[in-house]
Amino acid sequence: GAVVSQHPSWVICKSGTSVKIECRSLDFQATTMFWYRQFPKQSLMLMATSNEGSKATYEQGVEKDKFLINHASLTLSTLTVTSAHPEDSSFYICSARRQGLNEQFFGPGTRLTVL
Amino acid sequence: GENVEQHPSTLSVQEGDSAVIKCTYSDSASNYFPWYKQELGKRPQLIIDIRSNVGEKKDQRIAVTLNKTAKHFSLHITETQPEDSAVYFCAASRSGGYNKLIFGAGTRLAVHP
């Protein structure tokens, strides 16, 4: 159990377009989901934390109007990168956590390339 | 703010040797300490975790130790194999609420045959 999927696995887009990434918990209800960004050879940087049905909590320095997060159900969270630019190119990874438990289960990641 | 420092950044060992990676955390309220293994282009995989009510935990060739007083925790891999080669991340978090994981910078482990 505890499988998290992400879609798409990779995406290439033109500068100025918006890209939506989906994160799904396939076999459990995720009360909290997390979105990370990882640049090459670097650690995971938390972007935001979202709880189902409430607004996401963004980390310092992350623009909430640029990275829109929606956690509409206990199994789905989406991250939309609006007006993407080349500097937004990165590996975006989500994770999900069951209520009351510490362990986070990670999705396979989405590699975003903005041309 | 909260911080987790991880050392070394790179580690090269011969197959069969042991590898040790160390982390220090700053938030004294942290009580959950997972270790993740990440292969190139893939998701982080939880390999072992420890909670603050224990000082050591072992799972086959992998062990983790925790010193709450010093705010240190370490990953020990014995009898290393080439397939252990990956980047390893430590993390720390509190329990409850919006508990977020604070990650270390990572250790790139290379196990040479």
Computed Rg of chain B: 14 Å
Say what oligomer this is. heterodimer
Number of strands of chain A: 11
Q: How confident overall, as mean pLDDT of chain B?
A: 94
**Total helical segments of chain B:** 0
Beta fraction of chain B? over 45%
Order of helix and strand elements from N to C terminus of chain A:
EEEEEEEEEEE
Describe this structure in words.
The complex is a heterodimer of chains A (115) and B (113). Chain A has strands at 4-7, 10-13, 19-25, 32-38, 45-51, 57-58, 67-73, 76-81, 90-97, 104-106, 110-114. Chain A has no helices and eleven strands. Chain A is mainly β and 115 residues long. The mean pLDDT of chain A is 93. In chain A, strands 2, 4, 5, 6, 9, 10 and 11 form a seven-stranded mixed β-sheet that branches. Chain A has a four-stranded antiparallel β-sheet with strand order 1-3-8-7, with no helix packed on it. Chain B is mostly beta strands and 113 residues long. In chain B, the strands form two sheets. In chain B, strands 2, 4, 5, 9, 10 and 11 form a six-stranded mixed β-sheet that branches. Chain B has a five-stranded antiparallel β-sheet with strand order 1-3-8-7-6, with no helix packed on it. The relative contact order of chain B is 0.33. The model of chain B has no long low-confidence stretch (mean pLDDT 94).
Which structural traits does this protein have?
heterodimer; A: 115 residues; mainly beta; 7-stranded mixed sheet; 4-stranded antiparallel sheet; globular; B: 113 residues; 6-stranded mixed sheet; 5-stranded antiparallel sheet; 11 strands; 54% strand
